[in-house]
Write a structure and sequence with these properties.
Helix content: 25-40%
Strand order of the largest sheet: 1-2-3-7-6
Distance between the termini: 36 Å
CATH architecture of the largest domain: 2-Layer Sandwich
Bound molecules: uridine-5'-diphosphate
Largest sheet: 5 strands, antiparallel
Number of domains: 2
Radius of gyration: 18 Å
Structural class: alpha+beta
Order of helices and strands: EEEEEHEEEEHEHHEEEEHH
Strand content: 25-35%
Number of strands: 14
CATH class of the largest domain: Alpha Beta
Number of helices: 6
Length: about 250
C-alpha cells in the first residue's frame, strides 16, 4: 500500500488504511488465515484477492437490494474502498443448517435443517474468546440500544433471504454466516466487514448423494486441503452467474 495512507487498524485477515476523504477507508484483504481464535494460522497465496472479489460481488448484490453497507467500490484486486464505520463489537451469526459450534454446545445434530433461521450473537472480544450473548447481556453492557439491535437482526434476516437464494442459483447451500455492523459519521447502521468463504459456510449442491463438500474456511479449519481451489470455485460460479445474467 502507498505509504501516504496511514494504517489505522490491522485485523487477522484485513488491514484498514486511511483515505484522502476522512469518511472513507481503504481495506486490504490479506492472504493470512486464522481459526480457533487464531490458535491455528496459515497463509494462502491469493486468498486475499479472492475474498476481496467475492465480497465485492456480494456487497454489490446487497446494495442493489437496498441493504445499507459500507462498500463503495473496488480499488484493485485485493483492496476496496468503504465508508468509515465504528464497528459494533458484536458478531451476528445466522444459521440455516446446524453445524459447527451450535452442535458442539447443544444437542442439535450436525446437518439438521432449521425450521427458521437461528440468530446467535457473540461478543467480538478475542480475550474473552467471543462468548455467546443474550439480549439482556447486550442491554446490560450497553453495547447498542434495543432498537438498533432489532434493526440489525432485521437486516441480518433480509441479507439471509437474499444470499440464500443467490447461492442456491449457483448450486451452493448457505449453511451459516457471520456479519458485523457499524455506525457511519451520521450514525447510520451499515453492514461492514466482508462476506466471503472466510465467514460463510457454503456446501456444494453439485453432489450426487448427501456428502458434505465444504467450499469455505472449514477446508482450513478441518485440514481438508484445497482452500484456494474452493475459494476460486466460489468466485468462478459467482462471476459466471453474473456474466450469464447480464446477457
Ligand atoms: N464465524 C466467523 N468468525 C468467527 C466465528 C464464526 O466468521 O469468529 C463464522 C463461521 O465461518 C461460520 C459461522 O460464523 O460461517 C458460524 O460459526 P460457528 O459459530 O459454528 O463457529 P465455528 O464452528 O466456526 O467455531
Amino acid at each position: 500500500m502507498n505509504n501516504k495512507y496511514e494504517l489505522i487498524y490491522e485485523g487477522k485477515a484485513k488491514k484498514v488504511f486511511s483515505h484522502d476523504d476522512a469518511d472513507k477507508v481503504i481495506i486490504e484483504f490479506k492472504d493470512d488465515a486464522t481459526a480457533f481464535n487464531a490458535l491455528k494460522k496459515a497463509k494462502f497465496e491469493g486468498k486475499g484477492k479472492l475474498n476481496c472479489l467475492i465480497s465485492t460481488r456480494i456487497f454489490e448484490l446487497l446494495v442493489e437490494k437496498n441493504i445499507p453497507t459500507h462498500f463503495i467500490g473496488l480499488k484493485n484486486e485485493n483492496t476496496m474502498i468503504a465508508h468509515k464505520i465504528k464497528i459494533i463489537p458484536l458478531e451476528i451469526v445466522l444459521r440455516n443448517t446446524a453445524y459447527g459450534s451450535l452442535c458442539k454446545q447443544t444437542t442439535i445434530k450436525s446437518g439438521t435443517v432449521l425450521a427458521k433461521p437461528l440468530i446467535d450473537i457473540y461478543l467480538k472480544d478475542d480475550e474473552l474468546n467471543d462468548p455467546l450473548l443474550t439480549k439482556d447481556r447486550i442491554e446490560l453492557m450497553k453495547i447498542i440500544s434495543a432498537n438498533d439491535l432489532d434493526l440489525i437482526i432485521d437486516l441480518t434476516l433480509k441479507i439471509n433471504f437474499i444470499l440464500k437464494s443467490f447461492f442456491k442459483n449457483i448450486h451452493l447451500h448457505l449453511v451459516d454466516f457471520k456479519l458485523e455492523f457499524g455506525y457511519d459519521a451520521e450514525n447510520n447502521i451499515l453492514l461492514g466487514d466482508e462476506i466471503s468463504p472466510d465467514n460463510c459456510r457454503l456446501w456444494d449442491l453439485n453432489q450426487k448423494n448427501d456428502t458434505i463438500v465444504s467450499l469455505d474456511k472449514d477446508r482450513f479449519r478441518n485440514d481438508l486441503g484445497g482452500v484456494i481451489e474452493a475459494y476460486s470455485e466460489i468466485n468462478r460460479r459467482i462471476n459466471d452467474f453474473i456474466l450469464f445474467n447480464k446477457k
